[in-house]
Amino acid sequence: MNFRTLHLILSTAILTSVSAHAQQTSNQVQIVGQMRNVMWKGQLHGNIHLDTIANKKNLYGLGPVEYLSGEVLIIDGKSYRSEVVSDTAMKVEETYDLKAPFFGYANIARWSERTLPASIQTLQQLEQYLDKETKDSPRPFMFKLAGVVEQGTIHVVNLPKGSKVSSPGEAHKGQVNYQVKNKPSEIIGFFSTEHKAIFTHHDTYLHMHLITADRQKMGHLDEVLFKKGTMKLYLPIK
Asked: Which residue in 5, 75, 140, 142 has the most C-beta neighbors within 10 A?
């Protein structure tokens, strides 16, 4: 084996290793702040300005707006904020000029696609399915769903200005719930068995935000009934 051949083999091996490491790193979820510090300690200020996230390519993320004045969703590099207008209307705008008290995000370039089984229609069923299907996958992870939501409830936090928070009940004061019916939608979700009260509520492994395909509604997903046979599930490729 001559020097040129050896050099080529070593260079290829190094590039492959670097590429694999970059892919693994890019899929990793970064979490800033903690839900429990907001809910129980009243730390409502922003811990991250979204525009400071350097790499916005293939970026996905979710969380609330600082001082619990709205919801945030980043999907494929585009950042959206929703805020309450009335009990029946909200405003959704595209912007990175946002701060969040806690936020989770990841850069994911490649996804594996599958049709969600028709038997999986609710959040509880989805949680069990993801837990079973990803036992050997790195956790925590982001995932996405796309399809028709037959019936869903999303909320947008809307804490009155100047409010003090020392419990989840106080944190959700002013929150408005909105209904989603028979709407093509996209959902970005976070799954972990180790982040209760950090990035998921104490009784679930999931934290999910939904945005309708027409970009008229976006919020934290509380309840859902997926339309059978329409939902596609996307998981990060290892």
From this structure: 142
Provide the residue type at 84 as one letter.
Answer: V
CA neighbours closer than 13 Å in the CB half-sphere of residue 221: 30
pLDDT tens digits, residue range 13-39?
333 333 333 344 478 999 999 999 999
Does the domain at 31-236 match CATH 3.30.1330.80? Answer given as yes
- Residue 112's CB is within 10 A of a number of other CB atoms, namely 10
For 148-198, how does the pLDDT look when each residue is reduced to its tens digit (9 = 90+)?
999 999 999 999 999 999 999 999 999 999 999 999 999 999 999 888 878
Which three-class secondary structure state does DSSP give residue 222? strand
The label of the residue with tokens 């020392």 reads: 166
Buried b or exposed e, range 177-194, using 16+ CB within 10 angstroms? ebebeebebbbbbbbbee
